[in-house]
Amino acid sequence: MEDAKPKLAPATSLQDIISHAKEYGFVFPSSEIYDGLQAVYDYGQNGVELKNNLKSVWWKAMTQLHDNVVGIDASIFMHPLTWKASGHVDSFNDPMIDNKDSKKRYRADQLLELKAEEYAANGQPEKGHELLLEMARLLGENDLDGVRELIISEGIVDPISKTANWTEVRQFNLMFSTQVGSVAEDSSLIYLRPETAQGIFVNFLNVQKTGRMKIPFGIAQIGKAFRNEIVARQFTFRMREFEQMEMQFFVRPGTEMEWYEKWKEARLNFHKAVGLPAEKLKFHVHEKLAHYANAAVDIEYQFPFGFREMEGIHSRTDFDLKSHQELSRKKQQYFDNDLDENGKPFGNYIPYVVETSVGADRLFLAVFCNAFTEEVVGEGETQKTRTYLKLHPALAPVKAAIFPLVRKDGLPEKAQQILKLLRSDFRVIYEERDAIGKRYTRQDLIGTPFCIAVDYQTLEDDTVTIRHRDTTEQIRMPISELKQHIGQAVSMERILEQL
Ligand code: GAP
């Protein structure tokens, strides 16, 4: 018997994703006419819509679905002492190493992590685990000579020159800096924020007081962050300018692990709700903790280049608020008048913080990779590959495309009327060029969930055909029902109701 289900074409490579993203207006290399700038990308006409939809659903999931989470929008530039307090001036470093033969630069920790993955792939996961522990110990002690020796003793060679002719390991601070002030003598060093979180910490009391917020409560923010990444590869996965969606949840000390577990689950559910399959998501508990954390886990997604971090969830203790209090000499305390088990108010304390931090660009890349579908359809000589983006309709850049069957006899005018009817509710487009099959294909390639065709029957009875992207099925429908039919499917509610 014939298999009714379409067969999936061979696995997608990152190169397929990069090409598709460029060809269909999702992601372009930055300043491409000058041959681009490494690890910097621009979002095109469709990419910006998809990214905005992802940011919007995250914002709603955080602020609308939680009574105790509010949003802010802090500046990229902050007082330089912010970064001293946060530890970024002293510890936001990556250990780098150069190969003297290939002249290529690598992150020393990543070379060792790759080696550990190699052990695991060869059935020696314990050996890999031991290697990671040893690396964490050496980095924790800032023993950079030890890290170099470990690279050499593990027989790690440069993938290009195939030699182990390594330089010493050096720490490299990832923050970009510039000057403020109009006159050179007046200017002072200022950083481009490497995370949005600090904008939240320095506004903790402003928001708590003006919003009369009671602990536990959270502050969410979406914004640009900048890091001078040593190795910037894998498309938008690791960029030098990127966007973060972060939320700091302020809790009573001692309750942080309970909230950490709750947010872990909530965030995993979010990724499933936007359409990422459970089997492509997993938690990865950190062996090596950042300088501010007492527990940390990543939510990893299976990108075409393997499982990698998409979101970080950290229990940040009171590290940040405490350091800001010390450096600014402004109290960062909260008065908790809830009663403890002895009937006494908990009183003044610096709250503990549980952070959720997801890169908008990494979420975009995960959703885009997951949506990219190639199916083999037809049999024998008519067999071909159908490519489309199976995006959640609420995330799709264009919700519906409207086509007159032909460019005459009043059909374009009728189609334009439908466009006007729908355009204030949804992003819809009108297309009259090329055969209708080609127009369907173009919409499939950008993930448009509905195509509406206007034909001669429309002029008689005000009905159209509406084609569904995933099934390619077409049904006849009165124009008066379109708004409801499309609205139902593309509403953000379809995602939020799963949370
Ligand atoms: N405030 C905590 C923090 O910044 P992080 O693990 O360094 O933690 C959080 O970053 C998230 O930001 C990551 O999980 C990732 O999604 C995103 N991110 C970090 N560096 C990035 C880069 N160079 N390019 C794109 N996204 C990045």
From TrEMBL:
Query: A Gene Ontology MF term for this entry?
Result: glycine-tRNA ligase activity
Mention any one GO cellular component term assigned to this protein in its UniProt record.
Answer: microvesicle
Q: Where does ATP bind?
A: R227, N228, E229, F237, R238, M239, R240, E241, F242, G359, A360, D361, R362
Superkingdom is Bacteria
Q: What class of enzyme is it?
A: ligase
Gene3D superfamilies from the xrefs? 3.30.40.230, Anticodon-binding domain, Bira Bifunctional Protein, Domain 2
Q: Which PANTHER family does the UniProt entry name for this protein? A: DNA POLYMERASE SUBUNIT GAMMA-2, MITOCHONDRIAL, GLYCYL-TRNA SYNTHETASE/DNA POLYMERASE SUBUNIT GAMMA-2
| Phylogenetic lineage | Bacteria, Pseudomonadati, Bacteroidota, Cytophagia, Cytophagales
Instruction: Tell me the protein's name.
Output: Glycine--tRNA ligase
Q: Which organism is it from?
A: Larkinella knui
